[in-house]
Amino acid sequence: MNDATPPYVPAVLDPNRKVVVAIDGPAASGKSSTAQWVAEKLAFRHVDSGALYRAITAARLRAGGQSDEWSEPSVLAVARQVSLRPTERGFIPLIKGESAEGEIRGGEVTREVSRVARMQAVREWVNSEVRRVAEGHDVVVDGRDIGTVVFPDAQLKIFLVADPWERAKRRLVQRLSRRPTDAEIAEETERLVQRDARDATQTVQARDAVLIDTTYLTQSEQVERIVALARGVTSRRGATSPVDGEAGSR
Ligand code: CDP
């Protein structure tokens, strides 16, 4: 049975191996809020990898200078100011020990973050932080390359997509707490499409990911779908012995 067509899904998972649910997708596809909600329902930890890229970008902006002249070592140097404070169900990124949530979600960081995220040494730093805080826990991790690079052996991989207009509308409702105008949605759609293009190299759907188009789904519907898939994984984490072909414990 082990040579079944890929992706090979063993009937019983190693009970000692922690579960990783990887949620990837383009800008504003609802990854973080979905991941957070899924983690709550499953009592897993949530790790938002994008928040780390955002925090590093905010720290680099504080250091000043023209963003198109930022060198990789200068970005890596400020990454050391970024740490993660554990919360009940996840982490808050800190800059120099302080929360900077408003700053990291702001327009300036959003404009510059892709530049920082393209730097290979920065990606390695973020990936090792994400793996470090996930170690020993069942986790839901969201980003762009979680199922391909950070946790290629995640037991459940989701790739969330949605129509750009719908994504822009959701992002604006979240930001403005009111119904956005069509002109505002058009402008935000343009910004999202540009960011998607800048992030294209690292935004990769894993071969064994489940693709979910959320354009016509409510957030609770998409959460329920992922939770049901994840419960399918946890229910196979039985008391029986590990199955051949499964990677060892993390
Ligand atoms: O705003 P949105 O929710 O789409 O993005 P985010 O998850 O907060 O990520 C912000 C930025 O970090 C993205 O635009 C990417 O440039 C970068 N990122 C990445 O390159 N790889 C990841 N695994 C996560 C984020």
Keywords:
disordered N terminus, alpha/beta, Rossmann fold, 250 residues, five-stranded parallel β-sheet, binds cytidine-5'-diphosphate
SS-derived structural category: alpha/beta
Each distinct ligand: cytidine-5'-diphosphate
Topology order in helix (H) and strand (E) letters? EHEHHEEEHHHEHEHHEH
What is the CATH top level name of the largest domain?
Alpha Beta
> If classified by CATH, what would the architecture of the largest domain be?
3-Layer(aba) Sandwich
Helical fraction equals 40-55%
Number of self-contained structural domains: 2
Cα distance, first to last residue? 24 Å
What is the residue-averaged pLDDT?
A: 90
Number of helices: 10
Radius of gyration: 19 Å
**Do you know the CATH topology of the largest domain?**
Rossmann fold
Largest sheet: 5 strands, parallel
CATH homologous group name of the largest domain: P-loop containing nucleotide triphosphate hydrolases
Taking pLDDT < 50 over at least 5 consecutive residues as the criterion, the unreliable ranges are: 1-6, 239-250
Overall geometric form: globular
The strand line-up of the biggest sheet is 2-6-1-7-8
Beta strands, count: 8
